Amino acid sequence: MPYDDPDPSDPSMLVGVTAPGTADSTRAMAAVFADEFARLGHPAHEIFGLFENPHYGGPHAALRALGPLAVLAIVREAVARWPVVRIVDAARKEED
Amino acid sequence: MAPVHNWQLGREMAYPYAPAYPERQFAFVFNINRCIACQSCTMACKSTWTFSKGQEHMWWANVETKPYGGYPQSWDVKILEQLERANPGGQVWRGSPGNDPQAPYGRFEGQTIFEAVERLPEPGSSRVLGYLPADDEWNSPNIWEDNPVGQRGAPRTYDAEGVSLPTHKTWFFYLARICNHCSYPACLAACPRGAIYKRPEDGIVLIDQEQCRGYRKCVEACPYKKSIYRGNTRTSEKCVACYPRIEGRDPESNGQPLETRCMAACIGQIRMQGLVKMSRDGTWAEDRYNPLYYLVHVAKVALPLYPQFGTEPNGYYIPPRWVPVDYLHQMFGPGVEQALERYARPDRELLAVLQLFRRSNRIIFRYELQEGPKLYETTIAGHPFTVYNDTVIAYGRDGDEIFRTQVDEPLHVRPPQHQNSI
Fold first, then answer.
1. DSSP-assigned states of every residue in B139-181
2. Domain positions in chain B
3. Chain A window 34-73: which residues touch B at a Cβ cutoff of 8 Å?
4. How far is B278 from chain A (nearest CA, A)?
5. d(C-alpha B93, C-alpha B376), whole Å
6. Which of A12, B59, B88, B288 would be B74's cystine partner, CB 3.0–4.6 Å?
7. Which pTM value belongs to this model?
8. Among all residues of chain B, which has the CA nearest to that of A13?
9. Spans of all domains in chain A
10. In angstroms, rounded to a whole number, what is the distance separating the alpha carbons of residues B102 and B12?
């Protein structure tokens, strides 16, 4: 363990400091969340449900910052970007 | 001081030794967008090289959470502050990224760590601007990075009203780091005993343990803090780039160059490492179908880490696309906007080359593309985007095929009886 606790007055000690973000970075972050789940084959309503769920702090914060319509557009775009997800299930036959 | 050309800065700079470049250079590309900080790389390195007594604090490979974290703590913030103090307001870039191989990111008008040391009000004995981290800055990598620290004045306690804490409005990403085996190593420049050398065959930077006396000038000078002092041997040690693997002397390799342990262990498939051809002037020789050359100089999606330090690091990063551009600009230089744009909407070749990451542990020297059928059309940010199922083939040092893979990669579902098996 370090010998000292973090010193809040130390300008080099960034612990607990909110790094500035912008609307653009929130939008980009939301797009990344949506992309990740779209690539796993989740449909739009499931991904949007993730944003609505307050227990998923990051996506939900984006929903509150950007509004549901903007998030819905982001989700729809992500799903459209990955329209084909090929799933190989060894226990069953290959399916699309 | 001798004038050398630093192509990442687009200009000549002062360096304590005359220019000398290897035949090939150890280099790597990390795709930050894929890193999940699983620390597999960290542990692969630890269990190979730094598991002995006296090396407990030593992590040649580490992954830190940016912007808060650092190993040692606040290493980059501290060196950036030092440079700003030496050259207030002057750490700026001019021009814009282009196709000039001598200045692909424009021109850096500020001071490097080799130049700024001359401007200190009280010059010391150091040849390089730097600082020596305190013991406690090394001792706890990742401390407080991903953990709630509790209320001020009551650290390491749970907040009884935790549910009412404000929502974090922030961003972060994981930065995986090893020694950059720089073209102008600060550790080498600073060593008063000449104990540090750069190998002419592959550019790997090593500390001669017979020559080192543990003065720690390299620890002070390396801006990336990848030279680390070991108390019980009274010498400094650093990443050796797993050189037996690079040389093809690993028992697994059958004489073929293998990527390092940290690369091979990467389950997120963020890492690719290779040996790039060097020109006599210190730039990368054109090698169009070497995947590292392609990512750095053709697609220009991979950028050097803190190029303004002036060491010409050979570690390149595909920047994370959700992070504010100002921060990325400080960390990776002026090529960030273009890199993000190209990565978000990759062309056909880039999409194929990105499939090369971690399909094999052997070093890829060349790739070849075979066009495949169109899979589908879609749009990205309003732009039309077509995905083709192209095949990309990787070749080794001797020109033999290592593997071939395709753009279309299925998701494999584990059978129920093997859900938790490794």
1. H-TTTTTSS---STTSTT---TTGGGSPPP----EEEEE----
2. 2-144+172-344, 361-406
3. 40-41, 57, 60-61, 64-65
4. 36
5. 41
6. A12
7. 0.90
8. B74
9. 23-81
10. 10
In chain B, which residues have their Cβ closer than 8 Å to the Cβ of A13?
73-74
| Contact at CB, B411 and A85, closer than 8 angstroms | yes
Neighbours of A40 (CB within 10 A): 13
Question: Which is it for strands B107-108 and B93-94: parallel, antiparallel or unpaired?
Answer: antiparallel
Residue type, B202: D
**What's the mean pLDDT when you consider all of chain B?**
92
DSSP letter, residue B363: P
Q: Which two tokens stand for residue B9?
A: 């800065």
The shortest CB-CB distance from A86 to any of B137, B149, B408 is to B408
On chain A, the residues whose CB falls within 8 A of the CB of B140 are: 1-2
Mean pLDDT of B347-359: 96
Answer whether B322 sits within 8 Å of A20, measured CB to CB: no
pLDDT at A32 over 70: yes
The pLDDT, as a whole number, for residue B401 is: 98
pLDDT band at residue B396 using 50, 70 and 90 as cut-offs: very high
User: Chain A: residue nearest B163 by CA?
Assistant: A55
* Topology classification of domain B2-144+172-344: Alpha-Beta Plaits (3.30.70)
**Which residues fall within 8 angstroms of residue A33, CB to CB, at 6 or more apart?**
A47, A50, A51, A58, A59, A62
CB contact under 8 A, B413 and A90: yes
- DSSP 8-state assignment for residue B285: P
Residues of A in contact with B77 (CB under 8 A): 12, 14
- Chain B's closest residue to A19, CA to CA, is B170
A77 lies within 8 A of chain B by CB: yes
B143 to A14: CB separation less than 8 angstroms, yes or no: no
C-beta atoms of B171 and A29 within 8 A: yes
Task: Calculate mean pLDDT across residues B179-198.
Answer: 97
Dump pLDDT digits (tens) for B267-288. Answer: 999 999 999 999 999 999 999 9
Helix, coil or strand: residue B392 = strand
In the predicted structure, residue B166 carries a pLDDT above the cut 60: no
Q: What is the ipTM of this complex?
A: 0.71
Q: Is the four-CA dihedral B43, B201, B199, B15 of positive or negative sign?
A: negative
The answer to whether the CB of B270 falls within 8 A of the CB of B176 is yes
Higher pLDDT, B72 or A10: B72
Please state the rounded mean pLDDT for residues B292-305. 98
